[in-house]
Amino acid sequence: MICTLIILFTGDEGEAYGYRDGWDETGSGVYNYTGEGQEGDMQFRGGNLAIRDHAANGKDLFLFSTLGKGRPVRFLGRFSCANFETIEGVDRGNAKRKVIVFHLVPMDGLVDQEQLPSQPRTSYALDTLRARAYAAAKTSPGHSGGTASVVYRERSESVKQYVLARARGRCELCTAVAPFQRADESQYLEPHHIRRLSDGGPDHPAYVAALCPNCHREMHHGRDGRSKNAALEAAIVAAEAKYSSTESVS
Q1: pLDDT over 70 for what percent of the chain?
Q2: Which domains occur in the chain, in start order?
């Protein structure tokens, strides 16, 4: 069984090295989380690489706060990494070094992406929408944790628009035509996050599908939802991999 989560711990230990985890001072609701590594410049390997690429790997981030030696930990919630920045700090030898700070957006309590207002329907070709979605899904440098929520929502919208275009008006599970048209005359299908039991999971084209309302509800509440979700994931991942292979040859 594929592990679809990454567990993170935060505490006061970082203060000894000149940095501190915590909610962004702008009041944006973004959590600034410092990467791992106590000596030298922090690198994108190990846990730092896993956090940066969690969406591309279809994994959620679960953050816990340590309360002290011998004490229990507190669950802070499920997050998505919108972007990151590199700041100046010191290591445990008090030498100057580069420190990676990830800007994490809390996922719990957010409105389902299907309920968020969409941007005007685009007329871009599928290839263009796909390129925009993959670029948006990649965690990139960002200068401020205060803008991370906006970055995350823009990413979600880009992925959503590509996935709905990829479906070409048909459910990606049962292949039935969308049940009706939206006010803008686009076909009504609902984004489904394959790697989560509830929607709002990692936004990446390989792990989001467009489903008709019936199939979407069955995924979450039906007896065969788990097996159908596994089959859907295999089909979408294979389709995206095939598309990438075709791109590299052409």
Answers
A1: 84
A2: 5-106 (2.30.280.10), 113-249 (no CATH)
